[in-house]
Structure formats: C-alpha cells, structure tokens
Amino acid sequence: MARYDVNNYTVETLLSSIKSGNIAIPEMQRPFVWDSSKVRDLVDSLYKGFPVGYIIVWQNPEVKLKDGTKATGKKVLIDGQQRMTAMAAAIVGQEVLDDHYKWRRIAIAFNPLEEKFEVVNNAILKSPKWIPDIAPVLEPAFDTFSFVMDYCKKNEIQDQMSQVNNIINRLRAIQNNSLGVITLAEDLDIDSVTEIFIRINSKGVVLSQADFAMSKISSNETYGGNITRKTIDYFCHLLESPEDLKEIKNNDHAFAALPEFDAIKWAATKNKPIYKTSYTDILRVAFTYKFKRGRLADLVSLLSGRDFETREFRTEIEEESFQQLHEAVLQAVNQTNYERYLMIVRSTGIVRKSLIRSQNVLNFGYALYLALRERKVDSNKIEQVVRRWLALTILTGRYSGSPESSFDYDIKRFAAYDDPMEFLKITEAGELSDAFWNVNLVQRLNTSVASSPYFNMFLIAQVKNHDKGFLSVQVDVEAMLENRGDIHHLFPKKYLTDHGVPQAQYNQIANYVFLQQEINVKISDAAPSVYMKKVYEQCQTKAPVYGGIVDLSELRANLEQNCIPDGFEEMSIADYDTFLEKRRVLMAKKIRDYYFSL
After folding, report:
1. Contacts 24+ apart (CB under 8 A), 255-260
2. Which end of the chain is less packed: N or C, by CB atoms within 10 Å?
3. Buried/exposed code over 261-288 (b: 16+ C-beta within 10 A; e: otherwise)
4. If you write DSSP's letter for every residue of 180-208 in order, what string do you get?
C-alpha cells in the first residue's frame, strides 16, 4: 500500500464527512485557539480562491471483530483541526468552545458592495450594507433572489441587482472550493506519520506522540474515548483555571452528569500545586503505570487494537485498551492519589516547581507511586522508594530530553522485582557510586547556571533539613523559597568585579546563598573578612548588626547548614578560588547526606 494518497474534496463534502462522523475531529470538543480575525481571513481566502493548505487525515486500520469479520476504521483528522473548525463555525454556524469552555458563535459578516469580510460588531449590525452572518446565506435552501431584491431596496441600489446577485452566488460557491486532503495509510507507524507530517507541513510544526494518542482517544465514542479525553482535558484545565468549573458544568451538561465529572471537580480547589499537569503529563502517567510501557506509540497501537505478536488488529484488544486507559486516567486524577503524591513530593524537600527543571521527573514519580500502590506495596516503602527516585532522577538527569525509552525501561524493571527497593539499590550502585558523590557531583557544581539541577538539589536538601537562611535566626530556606526570597553572593558581586573577576566566576553557584534582603544591604560590597569579623563580634557584644545571631554556637550551626567552609571569616579576594573549591565539596557532601536520609 502507498504511504499516503492525495485527493481534492470540496469544503461542503469535508464538512458533511465531519458531520456524519466519517472524519473525526478530535479538537472539536476542545477550546478553539484561533482568534476571530483568523476565521475571517480564512473565509476571505476561500472566497478569493486562494489555497488554504492541505488537510491531513490518518486512516484507522481495519479491526477484526469478534465474529471474524472486519470493520473499516474511520479517518482521524491530525492536521487542519483549526481550519476545519473555523469553516464549520463560519459556514455552518457551528458554535465553538472558547478558552473558558464556553460555547459561542463566531459570526463573519460580508459587505457585497465592497466584497469585504469582517468579524461582526455593533456597527456592522446597524449597517444595511453588511450581511451580519454569512452562515444563513450558505444554507442550501437560501432564497438568493428574494434576498438580493430586499438588500438592494434597503440600500437604494436597485440598478445593481445583477451585480449583487453574482456576488452572492460567488459567496455561496465557496462551499464548492476544493481542499487537498492527504490520507495517511493505516499501516504507518507513528515515526513515519510524524516524518510525513513534518515534510508536508510548511510550518514545520511537530505533532507529539501524545497528540496522536489523544486524537485516537477523542475520536472513539464506541469505547468511551471521548469521555476519557474530556476527563483529562477538564482536569488539567481546572488545575490552571479553577474559576471555570461553573462554565464547564453549565456548558457540558452531559459530562457534568457523569461520575467522571465528580472525580475531577476537586481540582478547582487546588491553589497553584507544585505538580500542575498538562494532558500529555496525565496521559503519560496513566499509560506508563497501567500498561507498564513508556512509548506512547505503543498506546496508539493498542488503542487501534494491535496484537504485537500477530500484528493483527483485533476489536477485543482495542476495547480492553480503552477500558484500561480510562481506569488508569481515573486513578491519575483521583484526589486522594494526587494529594498523597504531592505530600511525598513536598516531604522530599521539593516545595516549589522551579526546583525541578524536568516535568517528567514528577511524571514518572507519579506513575511509580500509582504502580506500587496498585501492587499494594507497603505505604512506608512506597514513600521511601518514590522520594529517593525523585532525587536520583534529578541528580542524574535521567529524564532530560526524550524520556520515553527511560520510562519504558524503568517501569518494566520496577515491575520485574517483587521488592521495588532491589531495583532502586541496583540503580544507585550504578549511577550514584562514590565517584559520583566525591568527583562528578563536585565538578557539576562548578557552574554559573543558577537553574542548575545540582544547586536546586542543594536547596532541596536545605529545605528537607529545615536549614535557616545565611545569618538568619528564624527565617528558613523553605520560607524564602515559598516567598520568592533572594539569592545573594557570599563574596559580593561588586567586590569581585572591582577586583576584575569575570561574570562566569562571580556568578558561580558555589558563591550563592539564600540571604535576607536587609542583611544583604548591610553587607553591601564588603569582603567576607570584613563583614564576618563583625558577625563574630556581635556574638560577643550581643548587639546584632548582620542578622540576629548573637550566639557563637548558633552561628557555627548556621554556617554549617549553609556549607560555609572553615576560615571564611578571614577570606578576601586571594582566597576566592579556594573558597569555591571547598564549598563545592561541602555542598556535594550535604546533598549526599540528604539523599541517604530519604
């Protein structure tokens, strides 16, 4: 079979195919992202006969039914959703969902005298020169003759009836304009589909495997895929915009009456959670934990009914896969599961999303939590394994970049061991050896990148240990992180620049510390040998100058918490490089001690 074929279809035929369900548009039930002016421009292009790009559909494979017969799969629109939705809105008058899940019309007005399109507004509604909505004009039963007579009479241009009639007929003819439709063969794998998509799509937009999977899910009504899709979409939207709960309930009565709505509406009560998921995140978590696989291409195959051994497509596999995915999604959006996982995340010391650069660290952590919980592993062991795995994957960058192969390997290995601690310890032995802690980690702390995962891990360790900010009596690092506290330089930046130290050196993360703003202002650009001398003096005089510490033992504890090397109080510019080296070693040791305390 050819990899794809290309045919031309009229706008009317395409819209009819969508209405009949022969072509499924997954995005029809999701917020319409185009603004109204883009809809106007699309209609204008159709009117003028300009090309509006190819539509790409993917033929679902024939599925072998239980009685041995085969059913032809429907086509799923994978590129052109916004264009087709725009056409349906302007030409058929179909309502679209806005960003707040509220249904609304996009009425495109037309001025026959100027042959101009515009988004309807109050001025247009008051003007007899404008047709306020082209949708009624494009209906099959529209009476062109009567309309032209009435329009010309209102505008006192009876002598132009023939010209106006021709223009209205030309407007109605936009439904006969052709669009190129590329139909991708049913036996193509996702990688091939992606390659073809990129080559055809002039914008070079890449559809992710999650996009393909969601297209498969939402276009299936037989096994409730559309309900699963809405469960995912609405849940993620409520985490982002909880104020839209009422709109969703009012504008989707059918879904609001389902138990799935009751299962997700709690998300509207969460206030900026650390783990805020997109549909890709929920899909990846649900699939990974339930199917013990990491490649979403496998999910697309399973939802198509593919038997990996015989390479046939069977309806029972399709049905079972949709059912399992639905169950897994409900577990992923379950309030108890979600909140218990968030407690584990916070108990690890991760109190702000900014402390984790890769969302997939949290995604796999959640998939692992759900998988172990389903296996009825002891809750204390689940917490320990998940905490350590979160820290391990941050330290090693395990899920940076494309995570699918790592997800696939890790979830299968965890599943293969009766005791999940066994795989954890094997991984620790390979990834977190003494050489990692004593050499590799110290070297990786030699960076000026403030968002470094290693500096973030140092801060996470400080949070876990309830460490105070540098020279602070009461205010701890967690409070500073929660309230967007300030990171400052132990060797002040101006002091270093005045001595010719370049930016890459004075911004070393080993020179960073969380410090209260008022203390930093007092330190100004003084060398450590200057301001620390006064800090030690205030422990004798009991008259605080830099922060409130006036007890020598308390000061020493604070310096240890912040990994300040011995002799810091005597250091000046000549000691800066030595200071960085010593502090990196102390920071690495603190991270190691933290890790093995989890």
Report:
1. 255/227, 255/230, 258/227, 260/227, 260/230, 260/231, 260/330
2. N
3. bebbbbbbebeeeebebbbbbbbbbbbb
4. EEEEE-TT--HHHHHHHHHHH-TT-PPPP
Strand partners, 180: 8
Cα(454)–Cα(442) distance, integer angstroms: 9
pTM for this model (two decimals) = 0.85
Q: How far is residue 590's CA from residue 368's CA, in Å, rounded to a whole number? A: 26
258 CB neighbour count, 10 Å cutoff = 14
Q: Show the 3-state SS of 436-505.
A: HHHHHHHHHCCCCCCCCHHHHHHHHHHHHCCCECCCCCCCEHHHHHHCCCCEEECCCHHHHHHCCCCHHH
Q: Which of 278-292, 293-307, 446-460, 564-578 is predicted least confidently?
A: 293-307
Alpha-carbon distance of 408 to 299, in angstroms, equals 12
CA-closest candidate to residue 220, choices 296, 323, 69: 323
CB under 8 Å to 591, separation ≥6 — which residues? 395, 437, 441, 454, 457, 458, 461
Write out 312-347 in H/E/C secondary structure. CEEHHHHHHHHHHHHHHHHHHCCHHHHHHHHHHHHH
Q: Check residue 436 and give its pLDDT.
A: 96
Q: Using an 8 Å Cβ cutoff, are 75 and 60 in contact?
A: yes
Q: Tell me the Cα Rg of the chain.
A: 31
φ and ψ at 140, to 5 degrees?
-55, -35
H or E segment and range at residue 374: helix 359-374
> How far is 490 from 506, CA to CA, in rounded Å?
10
Dist. CA 301–CA 308, nearest whole Å: 9
Q: Compute the average pLDDT of residues 274-280.
A: 91
Above 80 in pLDDT, residue 235? Answer: yes
**Tokens describing residue 112:** 């026959």
Residue showing tokens 């603190």 = 590
State percent of the chain over pLDDT 90: 63
Q: How far is CA 513 from CA 26, 108, 395, 483, in A?
A: 49, 58, 20, 15
Joined tokens for residue 492:
């002040």
Joined together, the tokens standing for residue 301 give: 């195959």
Residue found by looking up tokens 């035929």 in the block = 13
**In the structure encoding, which two tokens stand for residue 468, read together?**
């105070």
* pLDDT, tens digit, 9 for 90 and up, residues 102-152: 888 999 999 999 999 999 999 999 999 999 999 999 998 999 999 999 999
Query: Is 73 strand, coil or helix?
Result: coil
Mean pLDDT of the chain: 89
Burial zone of 97 (CB within 10 Å; 0-12 exposed, 13-18 middle, 19+ buried):
buried
Among 327-336, 374-383, 425-434, 483-492, the range scoring the smallest mean pLDDT is: 483-492
User: To which residue do tokens 């559309």 refer?
Assistant: 226
Q: Say if residues 274 and 345 touch (Cβ distance below 8 Å).
A: yes
CB atoms within 10 A of CB 56: 22
For residue 165, give the nearest of 178, 154, 152 by alpha carbon.
Answer: 152
